[in-house]
Structure formats: structure tokens, C-alpha cells
Amino acid sequence: MRELATTGWLELSLVLLFVLLAAAAVLFVFLRFKRNYWPLKKAPFWFEALQLGAVINAGFFSARLVQIYLLPLF
């Protein structure tokens, strides 16, 4: 019984972590396209690729969380 309780807390903390990562990626992209808030005018290519990868990764995690946790509710 104790293992089930710790597993629930672990899943909840992972869900919260992925939600925070997705929110941070969306905020990062929003600030990237508002030129007043972007400190780097000419970002290197690897930084742009890293940013795009973070946004795609956050999208996959969000879709997977919806598939695992929200779809069984309906």
C-alpha cells in the first residue's frame, strides 16, 4: 500500500514538472518574438535549434500527458 502512495506522488510531481516545462517553453517563445524583451539580437544557430527542440519536446510531453491522464476520464 505504501508503494502505491509513493507512486502517486511521483506521478503527480512528474506531471507538475512537465506542465512547468511546457509553460516555460511557451513563455520563452513568446518573449523571443517580442523583440523588446530579447537580449540577444543575433543568437547563434545552436541556440535557436536548442530553443526549437525545447518547444517540440514540451509539445510531445503535453500530448503524452493528455493521452495518459485526461483521455481515460472521458
List keywords for this structure.
74 residues; mainly alpha; elongated
* Number of E-type strands: 0
Strand content: under 5%
Helix content: over 70%
State the distance separating the first and last CA atoms: 27 Å
Residue-averaged pLDDT: 70
Order of helices and strands: HH
List unreliable stretches of 5+ residues: none
Shape: elongated
What's the Cα radius of gyration? 17 Å
Number of domains: 1
Given the helix and strand composition, which structural class is it?
Answer: mainly alpha
Task: Please provide a brief summary of the model.
Helices cover 78% and strands 0% of the residues. It is mainly α.
Structure description:
The chain is an all-alpha fold and 74 residues long. The chain has one domain (2-73). It has 2 helices and no strands. The two termini are 27 Å apart.
What is the fold's blueprint, element by element?
Blueprint: H1 2-33, H2 45-70
